[in-house]
Known about the structure:
Elements: E1 17-23, H1 32-42, E2 46-52, H2 58-65, E3 71-76, H3 81-84, E4 90-91, H4 93-98, E5 103-106, E6 112-115, H5 118-128, E7 137-141, H6 145-156, E8 161-165, H7 169-182, E9 187-190, E10 200-203, E11 227-230, H8 239-246, E12 251-252, H9 254-269, H10 276-282
Parallel strand pairs: 1-2, 1-3, 4-6, 7-8, 7-10, 8-9, 10-11, 11-12
Antiparallel strand pairs: 3-5, 5-6
Amino acid sequence: MNxxxxxxxxxxxxxxxxxxxxxxxxxxxxAPMIYNPYFASIGLNAAxxxxxxxxxxxxxxxxxxxxxxxxxxxxxxxxxxxxxVGFLDTMSTAVRVAGSCNAVLLREDGSLHGDMFDxxxxxxxVLRKGRTLRGARxxxxxxxxxxxxxxxxxxxxxxxxxxxxxxDSPMMEALAMRLRANYSSLVVTTGSRDPADCDIVVNAxxxxxxxxxxxxxxxxxLSSSTFVGEVVMKQxxxxxxxxxxxxxxxxxxxxxxxxxxxxAYLEFFGFPTTTPETLRAVANLKY
Length: 287
């Protein structure tokens, strides 16, 4: 009997394979509202389960979760993507370059393999919207897990120049060094979050998740030709995107990155994959 096949009438039972969704806080999580309806639509007996883990508890919680007999893997989100790398037995090249991980697979031998799909999802979304990446000038604000992944994938896509900004200077400079080491023709600068003269700007920080957060960059310096990308998914149109839209900028909402990367996630977990269009059709997103 294939225990990964879900009954026609959806329910979680003793054979359900759990994929932990690890992060904090969980109030902004959107993945369960996309994955779980998709799993139900194809009869797959698996479930994405949000698990809020504070940073100080993450090491012990991570180890305990992967001792569960019905755990299959994990999605990892802020603020744990960088920390997770240290818990892996093996990892993809994307994880090595980005220095962060957002997908963990528990193998049959008990080892943990990690990969990173944030950057790929972001890049796929930008390209789908008709923007040109090769040779582009890019600003990435935030050099943590998601920012490092997006920067790595933008470099792989052939952008000409990346400017990095993060309040954590050592983390920012470490990402810059990894980018320079792996993409010798890429111009990498650090320390500025001025969006002027950029083709693409990205908010890869948590700013926008809480009411009253400051904007991650000076929107008055945005040109109407600049493409603005967001990773925050608490609401579809964040304050940054609202300001960018008011200035005539094209933009990408945070959930777009998620829809674009889920097909790659599904392949990683060995589940039947699909298209972003199918996922949008079955999703039950709420803001």
